[in-house]
Amino acid sequence: MNLANEHEQPIAPLREALALARQSLRAAVTEGEPGGALLHRYSERMLELITPGAAQAVGRAGTEFGKLAIVVVGGLARGEHCPHSDLDLTVVCTEPGHEGDEVFGGWIRDLTHPLWDAGLRPATTVQSPEAWLAAAAEDLSLCTALLDMRFVAGDRQMVDELASEAHRRFFGAQRAAFLQRLLDEMELRKRRYGATVYQVEPDLKFGPGGTRDLSIFEWALMARRNTPEPWDPATVIKAIRASGVPRRVARLLGDARDTMLRLRAALHLVAGRTQDRLNFQYQEGIPSMLGFPDLAEHPADAELVAAIEACMQDYYRSARDVLRYGSRVFSRCQPPRALAELDVRIDERFHIVDRRLRHYGKDPFADTPVLGLEALAIARDLNIGLSGPTLDAIVEAAIAISEGDTRLADDPEAQQRFLDLLVDPSDVGSPTPVELCHEVGLLERVIPEFSPSRGRMQHEGFHVYTVDQHSIYAVEFLKAIARGDHRKDFTMATAVHLGISDPRPLYLSTLLHDVGKAFGDQLGEGARIAALAAGRAGLGAEVASRCEFLVAEHQTMPMLSQKRDLTDALLVRDFAETVGDRRTLDELYLVSLADMANVSPEYLTSWKLTLLDELYLRTAAEFAKQGRRETSARRPRPDEPEGLPPRYYSLFDQHLRRHHRRLLDELRSSETTTLVDVAEGSGAMRLTVVTHDHRGLLATLTAGFADLGLEVVAADVFSVPFEPRIALDVFRVVSRDPSHQRPLEAEFATMIQAHLAERLARAPTGASLREALPPLPNRARGRQRGAATKVRFSEDPAATRTIVDVETIENPGVAARISRSFAALGLDIEIARINTEMRRVDAVFYVSKLDEQQRSELAKAIRANLRTRRR
């Protein structure tokens, strides 16, 4: 048989047709055409383009491979193909070539290479009917492919028989097992991608409410049919209504589907490739791609942020509807139960049907919206869910409360019921009752000022959740602390929470700690709203004042612990005076911790937790010693380093001080120029470097660490004031690549020691420190591109030291360049704290007090050393 490809589909016309199809799709997206319709048309065009080549390939094969057909599966088969998605082709044949079969392999290449060359992405699999059916029993993706399967070319009868056999085995009357497999897959995705739609960089395919969840209810609808029937994108609403859900639910779900598909198509077009996660860099291109009205060609930052916010609100609303109503459609697709549903009466208002709370009557919530809060409490107490009709009725009742209507906010019963939900640590589940209270719209009716936080983006790059979801997760974190779920990871917090007698101020302040962001004044407005909410809740003036303080100061403990010298007794004393008493300290610590723990999974490192705990303990000790007589400063023991400042003896325990003395003695008595000691610490390695002191030493050491892939997060720098002067520098470092396997501590110390000794031997000195460094790579992304290096100055509480804060874009060796700037001006750094996150560096340095001229020169030197290349 001759399988020559002289009749293969011409590539150039196919490439041109593909470009025109994508151009037409782009225009449809920008003009606002519903996503379902525009992707349906685009998918049909893709099928038109690939069908001639597929038919030619089948013709060339003849009977060489037995019965043969080519089908498409996945989004292309369902009419939801995005412009840069894979083209899922399956070759079905009764006699496929074995592995290494050159004839069959050549035929596959002739089928797919023209598609690749034209700019498509064919993902081709080969199946025999029997093997496909057998594998589908174990592989869910192969099972859903049988459901999606759409004929393109070849033996149609074989494809129809395959579809009928698949339906007999897995779908129709046998669909229960298939639907359970879909539920299991949803649970796995929830663990990986999270349970909430309110993420600032959502995954439009696999994230909650994404296009995979669209596929889930579409597969369920196809599986419930009595006969195999391909998905018809033109009759989506009709198919949804066939499940038995109300017309309103079908319309809302259809609209949500259109929005999600249009948004995912826009993301592909903005990225110019397959892309599922809507990252910040792509969010900037989405408004113009969607034809956002009145958006300038080069909008100002504020205008662009507002447009992105509007687009993301559409996403959150639609993803939420996909989750809410898609699950309802899915449940209607389950096979009928053998036993009748159990109906248990609770009272004259509610009963339980199939472990779901239902209300009696047409709509009791419209006249008594507080009943919605009671329904949530009953469902929580009985550990059951809300039925779809009851959930809808509560939502409609909340929507009916117009803006400015404060009947729930002013209702003492509503306030009390909400506070009970807010502080109850037993409300576990997904969603929790507090999340559900927010989901149905009751939270923002009880606290109207919370409404602007719903789905509000956080653009600074640290947060992974929107303002509202971050705040709710912070509350849920406190409840987990209260239950003892985190007693191993957050021992201090668990102990502190045990001493909280009235959790209401703590939990209300935690819920509202970021509410001011929506009003342009996070701390000031947030504090005012917290006091107002506490007053409405009837907590009294003293508690309202405390809530106001907790929100106003919730950033203080993280800032002080990460950016200031915690051994500074005056700083701790001033902070204690600001806090006022131990109870407020306990609450402020827990609010701060809950906030930090829910910024992102990586934000609260064990190093940051250690610093926060240290500030808490030092402040608690300050409260404990108030009224006691001050003790005189301690003197070093004979086996400890001498001549160092008091903060050294406060910073390190006796064991470490003795170890430092041994290192100093070893350096003095040997010909070694540098000694390095490595120890694993809490969240970071502790590297102690003992070497001969000289100008620019810190810059050389930090550059050496950067060479080895280590980032400095903290440095405490000391110089023993005897000749010859010896530097005793203690660093906290983390690996730039956490997955990298490090050698044992002793081997690692030897390696670092050798590298630093080599670095020190050729370190710049004197005037060479002032020489200009080459510019850094420009690694700014998105709105970072306009951000310049910021240098700020302040003083410590005693006004004896200058604190230098530096913010800049992340680059390898940034710490070394900043340290070199100090050395060039002859300034000795006492303390360094360096935090690198989300491509940004926040660094803090303590030096002796600087005058205005020194500050100006230092700022100029830092900016010069951190300049980047022009793009």
Number of domains: 4
Distance between the termini: 57 Å
Roughly what is the average pLDDT, rounded to an integer? 91
The proportion of strand residues reads 5-15%
Structural class: alpha+beta
Q: Helical element count?
A: 34
DSSP strand count: 16
The general outline is globular
Question: How do the strands and helices of this protein lay out in sequence?
Answer:
Blueprint: H1 11-31, H2 35-61, E1 68-72, H3 74-77, E2 87-93, H4 102-118, E3 122-127, H5 129-136, H6 140-148, E4 150-154, H7 156-170, H8 175-193, H9 211-223, H10 236-241, H11 247-271, H12 280-283, H13 286-289, H14 301-332, E5 343-345, E6 350-353, E7 356-359, H15 370-382, E8 385-386, H16 388-400, H17 412-423, H18 433-439, H19 443-446, H20 467-483, H21 491-498, H22 504-511, H23 524-536, H24 541-552, H25 556-563, H26 569-579, H27 582-597, H28 606-625, H29 646-651, H30 654-669, E9 674-680, E10 685-692, H31 697-707, E11 710-720, E12 726-735, H32 745-761, E13 790-795, E14 801-809, H33 814-824, E15 829-837, E16 840-848, H34 852-865
Parallel strand pairs: 2-3, 7-8
Antiparallel strand pairs: 1-2, 1-4, 5-6, 6-7, 9-10, 10-12, 11-12, 11-15, 13-14, 14-16, 15-16
Helix pairs in contact: 1-2, 1-4, 1-11, 2-4, 2-11, 5-6, 8-9, 9-14, 11-14, 15-17, 20-22, 20-27, 22-24, 22-27, 23-24, 25-28, 26-28, 27-28, 31-32, 31-33, 33-34
